[in-house]
Amino acid sequence: MDEMINYVMSHQFTVVLAVLCALFLTWFLFKKLFKLALLVLIVFAGFCGYFYLKNPDTARENIMKTVETAEKKTLETLEKSKTTYHKGKEYVEKGKQRIEGIDQILSPNADKATKP
User: Environment class of residue 23 by beta-carbon count within 10 Å: exposed (0-12), middle (13-18) or buried (19+)?
Assistant: First the structure.
């Protein structure tokens, strides 16, 4: 560890290169995410324009219903994922307890020997 610290202190150019590489990777990642968000926004605007051109009288109502439905479905999915996460966490805890119980049954003296 001391050798690595000494190397970094004596060769600061390597640190600069590592920081630049990290910045480039971060930039390209956000650039891709920005492009994806922009694409989704363009598709959504296209759908809204299509509905507006198809029937301008009820387009605003249809778009609002669609947005409300999407929001409701998103919230439902979020709640389902939360309950799934909590159930999974409970199952993991139950599994840990069962494994500890089996370990105690198989070697009851090993637990006493390892703990001070």
Answer: exposed
- For the segment 68-92, what is each residue's pLDDT rounded down to a tens digit? 998 999 999 999 999 999 999 999 9
- Residue 34 is given by DSSP the state H
Residue spans per domain, the chain: 1-54, 58-116
Side chain identity at residue 41, one-letter code: L
Single pTM value for the model: 0.43
Tokens 């996460």, residue located? 85
| 25 contacts 33 by C-beta, under 8 angstroms | no
**59, 44 in Cβ contact below 8 A?**
no
- Residue 96 DSSP class: H
Tell me the HSE value of 22 on the side-chain side, using a 13 A CA sphere.
6
Give the three-class secondary structure for 76.
helix
Whether 62 contacts 51, CB under 8 Å: yes
